[in-house]
Amino acid sequence: MKEFVITTDSNSDLLPSYIKEKKIGIISHYYDLEGITYGEDNLLSAKEFYDKMRAGIMPTTMASNPAVIRETFQNYVNEGYDVLHISFSSALSGGCNNVMVGAQEICEENEGAKIIVIDSLNVSLGQGMVIMKAVAMREQGKSIDEVAAWIEEHKLEFCVQFTVDDLYHLHRGGRVSKATAIVGSMINIKPILVVNNEGQLVSNGTTRGRKKSLATLVDNMLSTMGKYQNEQNVICVVHGDVEEDANFLVNLIKEKLHIDNIVVNTVSPSIGAHSGPGAIGICYMGEHR
């Protein structure tokens, strides 16, 4: 059985230590801040990035670079590997299409090359959890085709929901109207958002107040986990530079589920540019989104 590598993009929000340990190939998404383009080796820390947003400096984002995609895949093919790429939701970025085009070109130019691209229809560590599962299956000796088939069948069971602290950034990204953002902020409305089966970001209700919104995330998770509630799968918490709220959410999850297998990371700039400082979410396995 031919060895295969697993690749993804920087929007998967995997911990750097995990990426290094499991040798995950990363294709960068980019963002522009104050006329400087960041990505790959040119990065701001999460705190630097979110502090700039708090100061009113707004970033713009760009999808993955087709030339970098081709180079990445070509290098793995040259080394004799098959490639399984798990992409950020195609409903939210053109990056998935760029990867599919690049993979097809490399396969056409290299006889015997095999590159499978999966649209995760997911974001952040929801996408990251798909990669974790792929890595675990590879370590169990599964082939690239077996792993890809399992993911395609089960990818809608990787769930993401989150809330934001400031409606302005959702308005800026076209997710809510200006009037909704203004009125909602005045009366402390906090939206609950989910990634749906089409990989789109959609509303799943509102709450009043920050702590209530965090508790609602956990309640919603419990109501959709079904059989997975008893399987002790990893649960992930992602946040836009709000460690105190992330710790509160982690403790709430532990209290409800009595598990310690919780991964916490910051939301990457390419996503955080749209969700803003203070965004926070839960990623988990559920019977439905």
UniProtKB/TrEMBL annotation:
Example of a GO MF term: lipid binding
InterPro entries referenced in this protein's UniProt entry, alphabetically: DegV (IPR003797), DegV_C (IPR043168), DegV_domain_contain (IPR050270)
Keywords recorded for this protein, A-Z: Lipid-binding
PROSITE patterns referenced in this protein's UniProt entry, alphabetically: DEGV
SUPFAM superfamilies named in the record: DAK1/DegV-like
Residue spans crossing the bilayer: none
A UniProt-annotated Pfam family: DegV
Gene3D superfamilies documented for this protein: 3.30.1180.10, degv family protein, Dihydroxyacetone kinase, domain 1
Ion transport is among the record's keywords: no
Function, as annotated: May bind long-chain fatty acids, such as palmitate, and may play a role in lipid transport or fatty acid metabolism.
Record's protein name: Fatty acid-binding protein DegV
Organism of this sequence: Lachnoclostridium phytofermentans
